[in-house]
């Protein structure tokens, strides 16, 4: 059974940092990509960052480039999202999601410059990030 469990959300002041974790199990990570999405109240779910474990390809939305960093610790079956210089507009519920094959994520990110939520089959329960100004 595929499971994704997020943690690390919380309340932080603008300019602060948080590190989100996505613990994954039940699948061979080599064949998958993991993406981080977020959804603010009244807004559509948007792709923030993604990582292909097949070739190491990474994607960042323009709104987070230079502030967020995605990484993976394969020994711990965990993908991280380090978020620095947080802004009030980063406030949202953050979800991690998995897609296979990883090329699905890579192709969409490279050709369209986005991540499409409907391409991801497996989702975590989400973790709230609130940035106070």
Explain what you see.
With 133 residues, the protein is mainly β. Helices cover 8% and strands 47% of the residues. The chain has one helix and eleven strands; from the N terminus they run E-E-E-E-E-E-E-E-E-H-E-E. The strands form two sheets. Strands 2, 4, 5, 6, 9, 10 and 11 form a seven-stranded mixed β-sheet that branches. A four-stranded antiparallel β-sheet has the order 1-3-8-7, with no helix packed on it. The protein is globular, with a radius of gyration of 14 Å. It starts with a strand and ends with a strand.
How many strands appear in the DSSP assignment?
A: 11
Our estimate of the beta-strand percent is over 45%
Number of helices: 1
> What is the terminal-to-terminal distance?
40 Å
Name the overall outline.
Answer: globular
The secondary-structure class comes to mainly beta
The residue ranges in which pLDDT falls below 50 over 5 or more consecutive positions are none
Characterize the largest beta sheet: strand count, sense, and whether it forms a barrel. Answer: 7 strands, mixed
**Oligomerization:** single chain
H/E topology pattern:
EEEEEEEEEHEE
Query: In percent, how helical is the residue content?
Result: under 10%
